[in-house]
Specification:
Strand content: 5-15%
Mean pLDDT: 92
CATH superfamily of the largest domain: Spore Coat Polysaccharide Biosynthesis Protein SpsA, Chain A
Strand order of the largest sheet: 3-2-1-4-8-6-9
């Protein structure tokens, strides 16, 4: 790695205001005397959000583009990486909250490792009940210490808040057939492992500020299970996810049909409490497995994934 790395901060935007975040990142990089750019690409947002984000054009180091139509989560990140002009890439979601003025410096201290993951946090206080499911799942499943993430380093990949050498990213790239929410990072992490690209987890989290309503989050979860089923059935990616491990256990003991029947009986209770934001996380796990199985049945695509 170059002793004086250059940095491209890559922010795909969809219906969220980013001026404050981008200005703060630019200020940090400028103070460090860093060779940097902040690429902000709008992926088909509504007109009001585009208008609100026009101000980033005047921030030092910013390259702002508006795409004519939404091209999807994977494709826009690939585009950002391809057009980036620096040696290091820092991917950040548009709804990320930057923790402090040392955020960029903390990453640069570990820039000798090809991939560095900083982590995610969620607000300590409970949100309104309409947003509580996303918050509860995030607090329990995504907000993990670096030590905990390091136990399974390639499983703990997220495309939000990750520093990666540009040549390492271009050697893998994201699967552009995954246009909807979920599991593009699952395949990406497995490919990094297969190529032997080193990864380090550190304590440098961003706050997840953009909570979805319970109903929207459940809709995105269904999309994620559709993606996971296709990835696993076609190439074995995602075999170490909790959903696939539970699915394999059910198949091994002949429990898939009994589970589906039992879920159908209790579905109004399970999904009603999930939509209300009051369900235990176990119900959310059952919801994911049910929709994973359902996607297989509806697609007619048998699972041939590897463990």
């Amino acid at each position: 790695m170059n002793r004086s790395p250059s940095l491209s901060i890559l922010v795909p935007v969809y219906n969220f205001g980013v001026e404050a975040m981008v200005r703060g990142l630019s200020d940090q990089c400028t103070a460090l005397g860093l060779d940097f750019e902040v690429r902000v690409y709008d992926d088909g947002s509504d007109a009001r959000w585009k208008a609100a984000n026009q101000a980033v054009r005047g921030i030092p180091g910013v390259v702002y583009k508006e795409l004519e139509r939404n091209i999807g989560r994977s494709r826009i990140r690939n585009l950002l990486a391809i057009e980036a002009g620096k040696t290091l890439l820092l991917f950040l979601d548009c709804d990320s909250g930057i923790p402090d003025g040392m955020f960029i410096a903390n990453y640069l201290a570990h820039a000798g490792t090809p991939v560095v993951v900083g982590g995610t946090t969620y607000a300590a206080h409970r949100p309104a009940r309409a947003y509580r499911l996303h918050w509860k799942v995030g607090k329990a499943r995504e907000q993990r210490s670096a030590a905990r993430r390091s136990r399974h380093p390639y499983r703990s990949i997220t495309l939000n808040n990750i520093l990666i050498a540009r040549d390492a990213f271009l050697a893998v790239m994201l699967d552009e057939s995954i246009r909807t929410y979920g599991h593009e990072d699952t395949k990406f992490g497995q490919q990094l492992k297969e190529k032997g690209i080193a990864i380090r987890h550190i304590e440098n989290p961003v706050a997840h500020n953009g909570l979805n309503t319970n109903a929207d989050f459940l809709g995105k979860t269904r999309e994620a299970q559709r993606n996971l089923h296709r990835l696993y059935a076609s190439g074995g990616h995602g075999g170490q996810t909790g959903v696939v491990r539970m699915f394999r256990t059910m198949e091994r003991y002949g429990l898939k049909v009994p589970f589906t029947l039992a879920y159908g009986l209790f579905r109004p209770i399970i999904e009603g409490t999930l939509e209300a934001g009051t369900a235990p996380l176990f119900f959310f796990d059952l919801y994911k497995v049910f929709h994973f199985i359902r996607n297989g049945r509806e697609s007619g695509q048998p699972v041939q994934g590897k463990s």
